[in-house]
Amino acid sequence: MPTRWLGALIPAVLVIIWELLWHIESLRMDSLSRPLDVAVALYHGLTDGTLLVATVETFEAALLGFLIAAVMGLFAGVVLGLMPWLERVVGPSIDAMRPVPSVALIPLALMIFGFGVRMEASVVAFACLWPILIVTISAVRSVDPSLLNVARVLEMTAWQRMVKIILPAALARIAVGLQLALAISLVVAVTVEIVLNPRGLGHGMMSAQQAMRFDQMYAQLLWIGVVGWGLSAGSQALINICSPAYRAQRTKERT
Questions:
Q1: From residue 143, how far is each of 81, 86, 183, 210 by CA, in Å?
Q2: Where are the domains of the chain?
Q3: Cα 90 to Cα 94: distance, rounded to the nearest angstrom
Q4: Which of 141, 164, 169, 229 has its CA 20 to 30 A from that of 33?
Q5: What is the arithmetic mean of pLDDT over 160-167?
Q6: What is the pTM of this model?
Q7: CATH class of the domain comprising 33-254
Q8: Is the pLDDT of residue 40 over 50?
């Protein structure tokens, strides 16, 4: 068996066990749909477009929140990484806000933005900001000081130093924070939809559960997992293409 297929072994075994348990009447539960019924529900959800529409709605909020966090986190991370004295000033505020669960901001976001994509994106942005900010600060501080000295000799502006020196040198580490934040964006977006926002994959899953359509609920849960895996794989491929240094570092770590 090729190595790349080994990862499918455990899910396949679990599905087989699930199917066998469904055929044992004493163990059968109404809330545990048959895998075949889940597959049929997933097929219908994809063919009639309901799952695709919900996926677009979830991605709209998740990616908008991620982009907001990326812009804020990268800018603030570079500034704080280059100015340790400024981090000592704002550090206590960051340490106080960072442990706050993002879902705790849902009532505040709802009061400000109401239901919709802006409310969801604001909660996602808060959750994604911290890994990007912390990793960027650490990455900027790890830049070789000789590179910054070269920038000073060439009399580069602050913007030129950031774009031509700092970001390329720190990109390999910053990419880790961005990839982590991208995964968080999907998790938080679905969570907000489950808790409150009437849109997207999370709301669709809760609606199926309340309607006692457990096959649809499991189908949407399975689809969220597939979408999350695709998002992670896509972001990794993009990083490998855009960052040769990151690819070399990952290859070195594996060897």
A1: 10, 18, 26, 53
A2: 33-254
A3: 6
A4: 229
A5: 73
A6: 0.79
A7: mainly alpha
A8: yes
